[in-house]
């Protein structure tokens, strides 16, 4: 069942079309990624989902409710970690959690939440004294304290060091495992590939592709590259006739075959049947980066 439905969403700031006909549906229990370069319209899209912006046109529903007209019901099902959030510098972690918990009719146990997010030792610490990773973990806790069905995480790991980023990824996986649907905005490929069940690629206000990470990668022109030094000269025509082969070339004493995952096994069997050994074998799979460049023609 779709817990978020967006169809034909348009939003402009003056003459600038920030979102230009975006449609997607997020299924209950998935991590759905919105991936795109700066200024693509990601934040504007999720702000319309959160009810923070009124769409110029189109329909948005969160658990069947209109986020602008039905503010109350939407606030009860949706938790949000906003991009570049701030709290009062002097508020402590405990005070922030208590304050936010008091805003909901059926809040989560904030102490258990703090424990789950590794914040127990920081409960007495003031917001201004927290590290970047601790601040982000607090914002995730505040997004979860209302026991939401859906949580929106916007640029969660921007500015975090690699360790804090990996900690945040584990937390996102844990949130999904607890049954909460996640709408994740990011411009990090690795993050989208690792976490998301499905990804909408957005560029200049439009969705250019929507698929699973592996589905997006399969669509890319750059598939699997297999290269090796043959122990004896192979028959290049036979190599070119293998399944899904796009090209076979000789380069610096190596044979370079471009194909798909299916090509690798067939190639190794053919070489074995001819008594040829593939020395220094390298198999390179396309990544989400390649798919992104192929599908949008833009770098992140
Ligand atoms: N309040 C605003 N007033 C005017 N223009 C805005 C406003 N907010 C966003 N824009 C413009 O709308 C476009 C989309 O911005 P948006 O923040 O939605 O993109 P984004 O994909 O989230 O980008 P980023 O990754 O940089 O946050 C951009 O060109 C941006 O400059």
UniProtKB/TrEMBL annotation:
GO molecular function annotation: ABC-type xenobiotic transporter activity; ATP binding; ATP hydrolysis activity
Key words of the record: Antibiotic resistance, ATP-binding, Cell membrane, Membrane, Nucleotide-binding, Translocase, Transport
Top enzyme class: translocase
Pfam families: ABC_tran
EC number: 7.6.2.2
Ranges where the ABC transporter domain occurs: 4-229
Main location: membrane
Cellular component per GO, a single term: plasma membrane
Location of the protein in the cell: Cell membrane
Family classification: Belongs to the ABC transporter superfamily. Drug exporter-1 (DrugE1) (TC 3.A.1.105) family.
Name of the protein this chain belongs to: ABC-type xenobiotic transporter
Organism of origin: Streptomyces acidicola
């Amino acid at each position: 069942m779709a817990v978020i439905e967006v169809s034909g969403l348009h939003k402009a700031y003056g003459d600038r079309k920030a979102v230009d006909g975006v449609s997607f549906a997020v299924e209950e229990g998935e991590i759905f990624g919105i991936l795109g370069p700066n200024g693509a319209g990601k934040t504007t899209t999720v702000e319309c989902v959160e009810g923070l912006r009124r769409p110029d046109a189109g329909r948005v529903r969160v658990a069947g409710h209109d986020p602008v007209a039905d503010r109350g019901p939407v606030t009860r099902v949706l938790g949000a970690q906003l991009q570049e959030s701030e709290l009062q510098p002097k508020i402590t972690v405990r005070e922030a959690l208590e304050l936010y918990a008091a805003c909901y009719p059926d809040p989560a146990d904030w102490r258990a939440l703090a424990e789950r997010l590794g914040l127990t030792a920081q409960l007495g610490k003031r917001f201004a004294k927290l590290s970047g990773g601790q601040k982000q973990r607090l914002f995730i806790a505040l997004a979860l304290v209302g026991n939401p069905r859906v949580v929106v995480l916007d640029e969660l790991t921007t500015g975090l060091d690699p360790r804090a980023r990996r900690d945040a990824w584990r937390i996102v996986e844990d949130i999904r495992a607890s049954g909460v649907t996640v709408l994740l905005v990011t411009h990090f490929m690795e993050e989208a590939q690792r976490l998301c069940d499905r990804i909408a690629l957005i560029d200049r206000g439009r969705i250019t592709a929507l698929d699973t990470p592996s589905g997006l990668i399969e669509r890319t022109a750059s598939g699997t590259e297999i290269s090796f030094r043959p122990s004896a000269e192979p028959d290049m025509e036979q190599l070119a006739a293998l399944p899904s082969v796009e090209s076979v070339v000789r380069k610096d004493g190596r044979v370079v075959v471009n194909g798909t995952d299916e090509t690798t096994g067939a190639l190794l069997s053919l070489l074995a049947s001819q008594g040829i050994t593939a020395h220094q074998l390298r198999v390179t799979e396309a990544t989400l980066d390649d798919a992104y460049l192929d599908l949008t023609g833009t770098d992140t």
